[in-house]
Design brief:
2 helices; 71 residues; mainly alpha
Length: 71
């Protein structure tokens, strides 16, 4: 989970920096900025979902190993 949180934070911070640069300096066209924004959103969502699935898998595996649930 730690790596997913770090990766999600890096994506969010990178996009925030780009958004501020776009707001004040406009280095990109609106079309390119929109594409980058959508890509960042998809990557952020995918990172969160994959991280949660992996965490759930390992939590269930640990519970099975400890005999708390049947498998």
């Amino acid at each position: 989970m730690k790596y997913g949180v770090i990766l999600g934070l890096l994506i969010a911070l990178g996009w925030s920096a780009l958004a501020l640069a776009q707001l004040w300096l406009a280095p990109l066209t609106a079309e390119v900025f929109f594409k980058i924004s959508v890509t960042a959103g998809i990557l952020l969502a995918a990172t969160v979902i994959v991280t949660l699935v992996i965490r759930e898998y390992f939590a269930e595996k640990k519970l099975k190993e400890d005999g708390f649930i049947d498998g």
